[in-house]
Every structure is written in C-alpha cells, then in structure tokens.
Amino acid sequence: MTKKKGDQRHLTLSDRITIEKGLNNRCSFAEIARQINKDPTTVSKEVRKRAKVKEFNGYGTIPCQANTDIHSRCVIKHICGNQNCDLPCRICRTYRCSDICKEYKPQQCAQLEKAPYVCNGCGKKLNCRMDKKVYSSKYADDCYRELLISSREGINQTPESIQRINDILTPLVKKGQSIAHIYATHADELKCSRRTMYTYIDSGVFNVRNIDLRRKIKYKKRKKATDTSAKDRSYRKDHNYGDFQKRIEKEPHSEVVEMDCVEGSKTSRKVLLTMTFRRTNLMLMFLLSSQTKDEVLRVFNQLESGLGIELFRQLFGIILTDGGPEFAGREALETALDKSRRTTIYYCDPYAFWQKGCCEKNHEYIRYVLKKGRPFDDLEQADVDLLANHINSTKRDSLNGHSPFELSRLLLDEKLFTVMQYKAIAPDEVKLTPELLK
Question: Residue 138 CB: number of other CB atoms within 10 A?
C-alpha cells in the first residue's frame, strides 16, 4: 500500500482542535495524524512543544522528591522563620511549604515521559495531586501566532551591513532619487528586498526618513469643483479623445506624443512646454517666453527644421494634448513649413488629465526640482536641458528598471538626441532636488 503524502502546510486552529479531541479520546499520534493528513512526528512535536504545565495549587499531601524522601514523611520545620511553631511545615497552613522550601521538587508523573506526553486522556487527572501537562488547542494556536510575529520583529542585519546600506542609500535619496531608481543600479549591493528597505526606513534604521521619500506625500482633496468654460472649442471638432482612440485602434503601432505646459508662479511669464513619448517616457522640454500659440508654433517649426519633415512625421505623427489656449491653433501646428501636413493633434476631454497620464507623471519629476509657485523667469534653455537630462536618466519600474534614455536609444532615431543636445547622466549622479538649478 502506497503511503499518502502529508499536507506540508502549517497546522491550523482546526487541526489543533482535532489534536486536542484526539488526545482527550486517548487516540494515538498515528490516528490523529491520519485525521488531519499530517505525519505522526508532526503531531508529536506539536504536543510536546506547546503543552502547558498546570501546577497543583491545593494543600495536603503533595508528592515530593525533597532529599529523596516523600512529602508525607517530611519533618522539616521553621522554613518560614517562625521558631515558636512546633509543627512540620508540611502540616502548617500559614504557608504552603512547596512555595517556600528550596528543597521542594514536585514529583513528576512517569506517564509524561512517554507518548502522549500530556494528561489529556488520563482517567486520574481530576484527583491527581501532581503538576499536570495539558494540550489546549487555543493556547497552542496563540503560541504559534505569537511566534509568527516575534520571528519577524527586529532588524535581520548586522551593524556593519546596516552601515553599508546607509552609506549607499542616504546620499542618493538626498539627491532626490527614488527607491526604484536606486534599486535599478544598486540592488546587488543593497542585498535586501525593496519591501524590506521601506520597512527599515519606516523603523528609522537609516539616516533617511519617510519624509525624504516622495511617494509618502498625501494629496489633498479638492475643496470645490472646477467650473466648465464656455470658450469656443470648434478647433476640437473631429479631434477629440474619442477620435484619438479610433485612430489608435486602426494604427496600434503609431508613435504617440503627449504634450502639455507646466506653469511657474502667477507672475511668471515663462512656461515649460513638454512633449513625452508614450512608449519610452522620454520627455522633451522647451522654455517658452510666454504661454501663447505663437511660442508653441515656434517650437514645432524649430523641431521640423532640425529633424527634417520626414523624421518629424515619423516621431510626432500623433500628438495628444489638453484644451489649453496655447494649443488652440491646431491647423497651424499641423501644417509643415512647406504647407503639407506634418502631424495630427487630438485633445483630451475637459478635466480628464489621466488620459495623458504618461505626461502628467513626468511632470512630478519637474516639480521635484521646480517647486509649485516658483517663477521660471530666471531660467534659460540650458537649465531646462539639464533638468531634462536628469529626469530622462531616472530609472523607472514601468520601464523594467531602465531609464527613458536607455529605452529611447533603442526605439527612437538617434538624430533626435543630436538636435536636442541631450546627454545621459550616470545613475549615481542623477539629482532631482531644487539644488540642481542653483
């Protein structure tokens, strides 16, 4: 007969209740094991490990091994210090001699030295005056749960390894690098999982704190709804988000570029125009002297002149943007310098920023350096290019641990980087804090 393989999972409360019932019914370990589909040694170890001792707390004749004598014959007096008492301590009711006698050793039941090692099924346990060992399913399960928690407490690292990790992690986080970017480069050196790293940071093990991690920020709920606008939107006809989706269904492999503007303070005239390639997350950044249609058109013409009309059509064939007034001149933006069509522009639904989520996510990296409310009037295009280099060199989980630069070098034309004069930044040199542009 082939032996049935036992269940390898941990014992549950239901299993422990079955074990307790089996012990009370004087079943063997083998019989109990068959009921819960475990090996008999598993049951044996569980009973011996998690049985609790119930001390005898009554008065009277308690079996004892004091001086190899029996408690009932013990004649020791004055253990409590009362020299006027003539009674043996075992008879005196002032104290229980088992509590104060150093020589007292309870006599153990010989039955506990062999299976089942507990008193659950013993018929004499009600009248027995010895200490008892009892298996309780509730007590055993509580001990198991406590062990699960306590075994995971503390830091599973040596002081030397903690210092080594801290020396790698802290300087990079202080530069504004994300945990994802750091692990893409230093996972082998850190030698612990990212989930564990977050736990260590939360516990204050390193010099880095939760406040240094950007994704710990909580977003405030809007206090009031945004009102819709009554502006002329005729330029959006046949170029809405629904039309964009139909186009993508027909041409699923087309390159899509998401376009938007990032504003500075209310008094700042200059703004940033961003163009993000969906497939690679590569973001192009341009400094506009004002948030107008003419400035956006200038950038389009500048790109076409540098890339050539054919490469421009290949890279920027489909552009998705919002309904900002600077993008309202759709026909002019779509028309090339030779009056041919160079691109097609589509518009997201009003207040549906998630429809160009790739672009919005990249804007978070801009805000790490250019905080909201900071004026852009002191910026030059060279500053913007430097910021773009650091953002595009940041490794992302969404890109399987690669940076937009690394992926774009494989999927986009190299001439784009020549025209933009973008350069990759070494992983440990990536800096996304306001100090980058100071």
Answer: 11
- For CA atoms 124, 127, 132, 135, the dihedral sign is positive
Q: Is 106 helix (H, G, I), strand (E, B) or coil?
A: strand
The structure's pTM equals 0.65
pLDDT band at 65 (very low <50, low <70, confident <90, very high): very low
Half-sphere exposure of 61 (CA within 13 A, CB side): 6
* φ and ψ of 318, to 5 deg: -130, 125
194 closest CA partner among 214, 208, 180, 213 = 180
Given a contact cutoff of 8 angstroms between Cβ atoms, the answer to whether 269 and 251 are in contact is no
DSSP 8-class letter at 402:
B
Strand order in the sheet with 344-347: 283-288, 271-277, 256-263, 318-321, 344-347
Put residue 42 in one of left, alpha, beta given phi > 0 → left and psi -120 to 50 → alpha.
Answer: alpha
Cβ(57)–Cβ(131) below 8 Å: no
Give the pLDDT confidence score for residue 81 in this predicted structure: 76
Among candidates 340, 347, 319, which has minimal Cα distance to 238?
347
Give, as one character, the DSSP assignment of residue 353: G
| Contact of 281 with 362, CB cutoff 8 Å | yes
Q: 286-309 pLDDT, tens per residue? A: 999 999 999 999 999 999 999 999
